[in-house]
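Problem: given the chain below (423 residues), write out its structure.
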Amino acid sequence: METAALIVVLVIALALFFDFTNGFHDTANAMATPIATGALKPKVAVLLAASLNLVGAFLSTEVSKTISHGIIREEQITPLAFLPIIFAGLIGAITWNMLTWLLGLPSSSSHALFGGLIGATLVGASLAAIDFGMVLSKVVLPALIAPFTAGVIAFLVTRLAYAATRRYDNKPDGRDGFRWGQIFTSSLVALAHGTNDAQKTMGVITLALIMAGWQDGDHADPQTWVIFACALTIALGTYMGGWRIIRTLGKGLTDVKPAQGFSAETSTAATILASSALGFALSTTQVASGSVIGSGLGRRGSKVRWRTVGRIAVGWVLTLPASGAVGAVAALIVVWFGSWGIVVDALLAVAIIVGVFWRSRRNQVDASNAMSEVADSGLAVKVKRNPPPTRRVVRRKAVTRAEKKRVETEPATTQDAESKGGR
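Solution.
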């Protein structure tokens, strides 16, 4: 029993650290665009995102139920055997999050968690312990559909935004006003991120408590202290900034105009909030990237760089198997060495975290130098600097020239007629 209690404490500590990495890993999803367009200062944006992540964590628990009573069949595994599996799965997720953070890659923390848990379960338990129907309906299909849906919404909203602010007769078009609108829409994305992502850690901790017999399995809702702990941890991680990811996303999005940023953020927030209500555990990174690409296509004169889109998709596809492989190795160590395997895993996790952090200090990134690299998502759509005029503009210019020519020729015709009449 003492061993089980120790493992639960380790699982909770590791889960909260994953929650922390999730916060600084996904800050850029909400705040890279308003930082890039100048709507918000970097530190103000991060503080705002942290506050709204905290609030969002209290809005729903549907995604938490998907984790605690969804992808893994607890009845197929004995509680004492399942706790080390959860521990090993978290190691896989954290390892992938730390590595991609070091490299500045905006990968999916959600899929890293799912991959780690699935890989550890396959090795530590069996294939039958995974509910692949739930994985398909609640994880895989939303991962495929949500970015496309967000992109379509962003495309339509961008088209509407540009149509509503069309420039006439060289008058100001008012599109700079969208920069102020971005403050609201980016806040919605931060709120949605807290609503969806914080719940994943709640679900993991709730699952561990149920396995240890510290919570009734018939009650899937996370306990109040779990909600508070996860909300505060993801908010703290968000406030730390995740400047490496912001650097990657932010500079690449400088070509995104305020109207596009407004549209992309609106689409991202709407997609995530709707999915959270349905219990779909989405990747905020994938939804945000889909929205950015859709908003780019909605701007006139745009063109997709399919090679860049392909690189983004490869990164998405690699997250599940890569984190799953690490989770499987961690679970294998537990299978081989028993209780000592948990100690070995814990030491390896500490070594990975410290090693990555120490390596990151060689090339420190903070608020002062965060905007220096180019994001793949910002480069996925090429927009001409001076796109050709629309057919409406061409017709209007033709009418204007014809009118001007008529006005110029009328006085000459009138003067000729008067001179002939004088004779």
